[in-house]
Amino acid sequence: MATVHDVAAYIIKKIGPLSAMKLQKLAYYSQAWSLVWNDRQLFRARIEAWANGPVTPELYRYHRGTFRISEWPHGDAGKLNLEERRTVDRVIKFYGSRSSQWLSDLTHMETPWIMARRGLAPAESGTQEITLSSMSEYYGGL
């Protein structure tokens, strides 16, 4: 199984430099769609419902304070197997041309993030987990 760092390295290898927010959202959607298309998680890292959308704290620790990311030395894009690469490629094909703000806005309209943020004000900090089951159920129904 790939790590979230391997997925981040693969995303950057495929589309080049991008904002930290966009990297976070593409990793999130890669996880969500892997649950639906492959019936398994892509990586084991926790995803939390932050004010600006889903965030993987494991990635955030390394890009905190950085707006634009052009490489990810913490992972190895070559560690993704064929099925994992195909999943991320499909996510990039659909979501990759979208802006980070568009992706953030989209996650704010989707049930997994909304449910995990229940009880929090819109800009309030929070670390509630977006569960694999909520992602699988929601995206599987689309």
Please explain how this structure is put together.
With 142 residues, this protein is mostly helical. The chain has one domain. 53% of the residues lie in helices and 7% in strands. The protein has a two-stranded antiparallel ribbon with strand order 1-4. Strands 2-3 form a two-stranded antiparallel ribbon. The radius of gyration is 14 Å and the shape is globular. The two termini are 25 Å apart.
Summary tags:
two-stranded antiparallel sheet, two-stranded antiparallel ribbon, mainly alpha, 142 residues
Radius of gyration: 14 Å
Strand content of the residues, in percent? Answer: 5-15%
Count of structural domains: 1
Distance between the ends:
25 Å
Mean pLDDT: 97
Low-pLDDT windows of residues: none
**Structure summary, number of beta strands:** 4
In order across it, which strands form the biggest sheet? 1-4
Give the number of helices: 7
Largest sheet: 2 strands, antiparallel
* Proportion of residues in helical segments: 40-55%
Order of helices and strands: HEHEEHEHHHH
**Helices and strands: which structural class?**
mainly alpha
**General shape:** globular
Could you write a compact summary of the structure shown?
This protein has 142 residues and is mainly α.
Q: Any chance you could write out the topology, listing elements then pairs?
A:
Blueprint: H1 4-15, E1 18-19, H2 20-37, E2 48-50, E3 53-55, H3 57-63, E4 68-69, H4 82-95, H5 100-108, H6 111-116, H7 132-140
Antiparallel strand pairs: 1-4, 2-3
